[in-house]
Amino acid sequence: METSKRLMAPVRVAPALGPIERKIQAARLVQAMPSLGAAYAHALARWEGDPVLRLLGLPLITECYRSVARQDALYAQGRTKPGKIVTYKRGGESKHNWQPCSALDVAFQLPNGEMSWSGLLLSKFARLMKAADARVHWGGDWPGFKDRPHFEV
């Protein structure tokens, strides 16, 4: 008796965080001002509740509070250190440098486990963030330098 093999499309599985990653995300979220943290939590819940968006990737806070020294190191990038310019703010000038923090940066964990800073994914998440709180500003809307991972109040 011959068995036939059917080709099936690979099943896409939405990325999920393990317990350590969940703790890291929670620790970053509590660094944010309450209004920004609430907007992020609301936008994240809407993203995770949409079966199509969930399959695209999982939004993650990559950074909220940032020390003045770290800010200065990022400012040096593309100027006196190798790499692309990622900020125009020196230490003490960024909304990341204060606690509670009025800025956070987001990236996406893709289903294959890679991290992405896709402008398309970030723009979709930005719509949810701005709908959650009209005070949220997205760095992708700025004239000139586009800081797409950046959200602030």
TrEMBL record:
Gene3D superfamilies: 3.30.1380.10. One of its GO terms (molecular function) is peptidase activity. Pfam families: Peptidase_M15_4. InterPro entries: Peptidase_M15C, Zn_M74/Hedgehog-like. CDD domains: L-Ala-D-Glu_peptidase_like. Residues 93-153 form the Peptidase M15C domain. This is Peptidase M15C domain-containing protein. The lineage of its organism: Bacteria, Pseudomonadati, Bacteroidota, Cytophagia, Cytophagales.
